[in-house]
Write a structure and sequence with these properties.
It is a single chain. The strands form three sheets. The chain has a six-stranded mixed beta sheet. Helix 3 packs parallel to helix 12. Helix 11 links the parallel strand 13 and strand 14. The two termini are about 25 Å apart. The relative contact order is 0.20. It has two domains: about 160 residues, HAD superfamily/HAD-like (Rossmann fold); about 110 residues, Hypothetical Protein, Haloacid Dehalogenase-like Hydrolase, Chain: A, domain 2. With about 290 residues, the protein is of the alpha/beta class. It is built from twelve helices and 14 strands. It is globular, with a radius of gyration of 19 Å. The longest helix has 15 residues.
Length: about 290
């Protein structure tokens, strides 16, 4: 698993959170915190690349004590933190979101929408027609609680600039049928991707963690070949492909592990920390990403 030349080439580390950097209980272990901070101390840029919202992802960025461009909402927003300067935003047209909301009603599925700040409230707002056990599941997983609202009314407003992202929360068996329906109707004009076994996300075309990572690297003056990306799910695949180097934990599906250069222990076993420790040890005390 060790590549003695790897950390001489890599200047940015991009981390998915859930299923990768976070343990199954959604926490950052002390070992992981120490390993990532050691990399930052060596001059490496640390990029969080997550499907989570900025508010939800900020908890972990602050714990890590890092700054710079971060990728949120699966690439729909790339924000320079902690200042909050928007580097890139890719909003989704309201029309397909209206279709998805109607489809969810027809099938009896839970569906929620993230509205940009200043439209449904002063902050970015998560809204659903009706709060169900799926809303409680999402709140428990992310710390973000949805509010109830008339999605059709909000999405039909003339001033609506678009939404950040939308999401179905259902059992995994429904995802392929939903993806097929949306692909047949919208083709490549939507990006529909699974971020966890129960979360199916709907985003604007051209939005992905891979595109978000490229925007973040451009902001840093780096190329994709100088990045090492870590991820475990379907929504991480564009990022793993975009980066010069990629790693997937043992808990990732075979399809994700198959395209990753490095296979690391599971998130339950602090796989990212194990890998970073080995690479830092191989690189030696004088190793630095700084020019």
């Amino acid at each position: 698993m060790t590549d003695t030349s790897l950390f001489g080439k890599v200047k940015a580390l991009a981390f998915d959170l859930d299923g990768t950097l976070l343990r199954p209980d959604k926490t950052l272990s002390e070992r992981t915190l120490r390993a990532v901070r050691n990399c930052a101390d060596r001059g490496m840029n640390i990029i969080i690349a997550t499907g989570r919202s900025l508010r939800s992802g900020e908890i972990y960025r602050e714990q890590l004590g890092v700054s710079g461009p971060q990728v949120y909402y699966n690439g729909a927003e790339v924000v320079d933190m902690p200042g909050g300067t928007m580097i890139h935003a890719g909003f989704l047209d309201p029309e397909p979101v209206l279709f998805c909301a109607g489809l969810a009603k027809k099938l009896g599925l839970y569906f929620q929408v993230y509205f940009p700040r200043g439209f449904a409230g002063p902050e970015e707002t998560l809204m659903a027609e009706r709060l169900t056990e799926e809303a409680a599941l999402y709140a428990k997983s992310t710390g973000i609680r949805a509010i109830e609202g008339d999605l059709e009314e909000y999405l039909s407003r003339a001033a609506m600039p678009g939404v950040i992202k939308a999401m179905f929360i259902s059992d995994e068996g429904r995802h392929k049928k939903l993806q097929k329906t949306l692909r047949e109707k919208y083709g490549d004009s939507l990006y529909v991707v699974r971020s966890t076994p129960r979360f199916l996300e709907v985003l604007a075309p051209g939005v992905s963690k891979g595109a978000g990572l490229v925007h973040a690297l451009n902001h840093l003056g780096l190329g994709p070949e100088e990045a090492l990306a870590f991820g475990d799910e379907e929504n991480d695949i564009p990022m793993l492909r975009a980066a010069g180097f990629s790693a997937a934990p043992a808990n990732a599906p075979r399809s994700v592990r198959k395209l990753s250069r490095f296979h690391i222990p599971s998130n339950a076993d602090d796989g990212v920390a194990v890998f970073l420790e080995e690479q830092l040890a191989a690189c030696g005390p004088g190793c630095s990403a700084r020019p």
